[in-house]
Write a structure and sequence with these properties.
The chain is mainly α. The protein has a single domain, classed as ABC transporter involved in vitamin B12 uptake, BtuC (Orthogonal Bundle), CATH 1.10.3470. The protein has a two-stranded antiparallel sheet with strand order 1-2. Strand 1 and strand 2 form a beta hairpin. The longest helix is centred in the C-terminal third of the chain and has 27 residues. The protein is globular and about 60 Å long. The chain starts with a helix and ends with a helix.
């Protein structure tokens, strides 16, 4: 009875979720992007192709961030995702070696390996009681060491047929954009319409209370890490398709660990767990995509770009933390 009551209360809370912040972030980001294109006389950026290109550049970060949302909602975090992206890209291209008949086996292997890493992360956090930052950082360093020792350049190649994942289109929209939003819808339905989703919020909001209510919180946390790792592995497959090969540095150079955390938190998912959701994450991803495009259009130096992005992240997160300080406390 207690578990049922907790599930119902959690679902009711999500139905009352605040859509204002994600909507405002998306509207303001796209408005700023359009204004920058007009003022810099780059009107092609606000054409259909330009907007599709903008969204295409957010796909890799978007998929990783959707997985990171699961981890943060259960009051955990995953710093191994960047390395796992590299592992996925390298293993996929190395196993395929340009052969179409290896596309499915290589993809399945990457996803199974990613899931296994998620299980390891989750078990270290729940059974060994290691802080998630340290646990996932350690796992990431182990993976990066093995990867760097085994490969020092682009490994293998993916067949032309596999590149459809990154470059195939339906009308003007690429498959990869549809994949990202399809995953977002699936995650939203999981979090808002299933018992597992309710358990995610309950575990993140009050782990001890959820445990006393009959929820197997350790299992929920492990599954959240598995989903996070699967998203990173899928991103590796996407990058292998986009780059036509994989290299040990693609995840690290993309800074997918820190940036995925940043966009999730900017979108309203609190690090304290139990509050937030998918569309806030998507809003944060779109914000980052628009910022990159704006800085490129106005010719901001790459190093200054990093400084400005960092400042925006700090200000946005600080503002949201202040607005929700009662919940965080």
């Amino acid at each position: 009875m207690q578990a049922a009551t907790l599930v119902l209360a959690s679902r009711a809370g999500r139905r009352r979720a605040d859509w204002v912040v994600p909507t405002v972030i998306i509207v303001v980001s796209l408005a700023a992007y359009c204004l920058a294109a007009v003022f810099t006389h780059q009107n092609a950026q606000i054409s259909v192709d330009g907007l599709v290109g903008l969204m295409q550049r957010t796909v890799a970060l978007g998929i990783v961030a959707l997985g990171q949302t699961f981890a943060i909602l259960v009051r955990s975090i995953d710093l191994s995702v960047a390395t796992l992206v590299s592992v996925g890209a390298v293993m996929a291209s190395w196993m395929m070696q340009g052969q179409p008949d290896m596309m499915l086996p290589a993809s399945l292997f990457v996803l199974l390996l990613s899931a296994a890493v998620g299980v390891v992360n989750g078990l270290i956090v729940t059974q060994l009681q290691v802080n998630p930052l340290i646990a996932t950082l350690g796992v990431g360093l182990v993976l990066q060491g093995i990867l760097s020792a085994s490969f020092n350049d682009f490994a293998g190649s993916v067949p032309k047929e596999y590149q459809v994942l990154a470059y195939g289109t339906i009308g003007p929209v690429t498959f990869s954009i549809l994949l990202m939003f399809g995953l977002a819808v699936l995650e939203w339905l999981t979090l808002s319409r299933t018992r597992f989703g309710a358990h995610i919020y309950a575990t993140g909001g009050n782990q001890e209370g959820a445990r006393l209510a009959g929820i197997k919180t350790s299992r929920v946390i492990v599954l959240a890490h598995v989903l996070c790792s699967l998203a990173a592995g899928l991103t590796g497959l996407y990058l292998a398709s986009r780059l036509r090969s994989g290299a040990p540095w693609v995840g690290r150079d993309g800074v997918y660990d820190l940036e995925s955390i940043a966009v999730v938190v900017i979108g309203g998912t609190v690090l304290a767990g139990g509050k937030g959701g998918v569309w806030g994450t998507i809003a944060g991803v779109i914000l980052f995509g628009c910022l990159d495009a704006i800085f490129t259009m106005i010719g901001v130096d790459a190093y200054i770009k990093q400084v400005l992005r960092g400042m925006i992240v700090v200000i946005a997160v600080a503002a949201y933390a202040y607005r929700t300080k009662d919940h965080i406390a």
